[in-house]
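Figure 2 data, in text form.
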Amino acid sequence: MLTLPGFWLLVLTAAMLGSIGYGLLLYASLSMAHSCVAFRMEGQTEIVMVLRSGRHLPGRISPDSFVTPYLVILNVVLSEQRRGRSLLILPDTMGAESFRRLRVALKWGDKAGQSAT
């Protein structure tokens, strides 16, 4: 293995810590202006994400989203941007009945009660 000079090791460490800090602010504490604090499903694959800044971003749910009884990962393709977003939803982020309805709607295409916050 090659050893990196001290300067490059410091630069790589700072970049890694900065990326981790950004991820924690955006996804864990939801304190950034473009953090998704709520969403609303409209139809089978349409979704509107509500950001902390108050903006509403329309998009559609990608078919490669992941649904299990204990975890939902929504991959959202945004209408306004080229990049998509992923939303990690755990059971304790919403009521038990809302989480169940969300899972059923995503997995089986249930039309009843498709909004979640």
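Caption note: Confidence is low (pLDDT under 50) at residues 110-114.
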